Amino acid sequence: MPRFTDGRMLILWVLSACFLIWLFVSRSMTLERAQSHTDAGSSGQSAFENVGWVTDVRFCAWGGVQCDGAGKVSSLALTFPAVPASIPNEFGNLTDLTSFQVVGNNAVPGGPLPASFASLTGLSSLHIESTGLSGLPDTLPNLFSLTFVRNAQIGAQLPSSLAHLQSIVVNNETLSLSADQQNTICNGKLQTCDLRGTGIQACGSCLVG
Predict the structure, then answer these.
(1) Cα–Cα distance between 195 and 193 in angstroms, integer?
(2) What is the pLDDT of residue 6?
(3) What's in the keyword line of the UniProt record (predicted)?
């Protein structure tokens, strides 16, 4: 019996070690997709390397990456030039992500924000600024804070479900609100509401103009 118990514990230890290795590799590969979405030899790729991406095996130490106490990626903040040409769909695999911020140079990143972001049910803060992003997922269900600034290509429509929103800043880009969004944003009691430079002329107590 003691040998059986020791053997079982050894198997559990090996399985646990394998799982941790797989977890580390999968998260690292997910983040590395951002670097791979830059052009080879580009300033963006060099910028990623300069803040430790891939060159440091500890992905929680990479610039712009924050992890929670369990070593899971909880926050990503990407600032030009260390931004990918497009946002990788694999970022939707970061299931513990609560905050995502990207500040580009008005051209990159481009393309849509991947539909996989809709599956990030813990995502509560989204900040997109000066990008060439051209679209958003239909729904981002649990956002508390939403910031869009100077994204000329992103379109006028916000994600459909903003029921939990507490703060919204949309500046210097076209904005169109559905009836439900007007009720949530204009008639709600948000902590912050700044819609200047969007074409909205009136919206409750929100800053407009």
Answers:
(1) 7
(2) 47
(3) Signal
Q: What's the pTM? A: 0.78
Comparing 16-20, 42-46, 139-143, the range with the smallest average pLDDT is 16-20
| Residue 92 φ then ψ, to 5° | -65, -10
Residue 4 has pLDDT above 50, yes or no: no
Please state, in angstroms and rounded to a whole number, the distance separating the CA atoms of residues 89 and 95: 13
Exposed/middle/buried for residue 139 (C-beta within 10 Å: 0-12, 13-18, 19+): middle
Q: How far is Cα 209 from Cα 207, in angstroms, rounded to an integer?
A: 7
In the chain, where the domains are located: 2-194
pLDDT, position 29: 55
Q: Roughly how many angstroms between the first and final C-alpha of the chain, as a whole number?
A: 77
Residue identified by tokens 């500890």 is 58
Instruction: Report the topology of domain 2-194.
Output: 3.80.10
- Per residue in 73-103, pLDDT (tens digit) is 999 999 998 888 899 888 888 899 999 999 9
Which regions of 30-186 does DSSP assign to beta strands (E)? 65-67, 73-79, 99-103, 110-111, 125-129, 132-133, 145-149, 167-171
Farthest CA pair distance, the chain: 77
Q: How many CA atoms lie within 13 A of 201 on its CB side?
A: 0
Answer whether residue 147 shows pLDDT above 80: yes
